Amino acid sequence: MKTLIIFAHPKLDSFNGAILEAIIDELKVLQSEIRVRDLYRIGFQPVLHEDNYSEFYQTKIPADILEEQSYLLWAEQIIFIFPTWWSGMPAILKGYIDRVFSNGFAFRMIKNGTEGLLKGKKGLIIQTTGQPEQKLKPSQLTMAMETAMDYGIFQICGIDTVSHQFLYGVTLSDHATKQRMLREIRDIIQLL
């Protein structure tokens, strides 16, 4: 299986980094081909400037975006790993989606809405939070974040969301709890 991992955390030695490492270890056991796009390490430019916006409609796609799109085309499954910041994804990841998942590449406008152009690909989202589950679920923030990513992005692009995992309260979790979370993620990878 060809697996693309989109990693969006500024610290590789964070818990998100531990998740990345655990996923790579499991994918190697499964003999998956793996490519990692660490958005901070590659210096991805997330800002969609006016000239970029216009170029997309003129089919003059910038070279950095063509490169990222080639990774998405190569992949059979896409795994996103990121922390929750202000009830959403980090700006660098939002910018990645804005620039890379473009109209004409990831989706196209049709008479009744959109048609996904990345059909046949599976998606897995691993999202950490600083807040505990009992703080986020009653306010429906978890559901809002899940809907925005799973339906507002993946479904529009034709990607089948296999799972959207929230790892709650990471900031205050002890070592044993974090190890349990990593085991759960390893188990999910085994089921892909």
Describe the structure.
GO terms for molecular function: oxidoreductase activity. InterPro entries: Flavodoxin_fold, Flavoprotein-like_sf, NAD(P)H_dehydrogenase_qn. Keywords: Oxidoreductase. Residues 1-186 form the Flavodoxin-like fold domain. It is a single chain. This protein is an alpha/beta fold and 192 residues long. It is built from seven helices and seven strands. The chain has helices at residues 15-29, 50-57, 63-74, 91-100, 133-136, 141-157, 175-191, and strands at residues 2-7, 33-38, 77-83, 107-110, 113-116, 122-128, 160-167. The strands form two sheets. A five-stranded parallel sheet has the order 2-1-3-6-7, with helices on both faces. Strands 4-5 form a two-stranded antiparallel sheet. Helix 1 (15-29) runs parallel beside helix 7 (175-191).
CATH class: Alpha Beta
Biggest sheet statistics: 5 strands, parallel
CATH architecture: 3-Layer(aba) Sandwich
Approximately how much beta-strand content do the residues carry? 15-25%
Unreliable stretches covering 5 or more consecutive residues: none
Termini separation: 9 Å
Q: How many β-strands, per DSSP?
A: 7
How much is the average pLDDT? 92
Radius of gyration: 17 Å
Helix count, DSSP H or I runs of 4 or more residues: 7
How are the strands of the largest sheet arranged? 2-1-3-6-7
The helical percent reads 40-55%
What is the CATH superfamily classification?
Answer: Flavodoxin domain
Structural class of the helix and strand makeup? alpha/beta
Shape: globular
Secondary-structure element order, N to C: EHEHHEHEEEHHEH
GO molecular function: oxidoreductase activity
Keywords: Oxidoreductase
Enzyme class: oxidoreductase
Domain Flavodoxin-like fold: 1-186
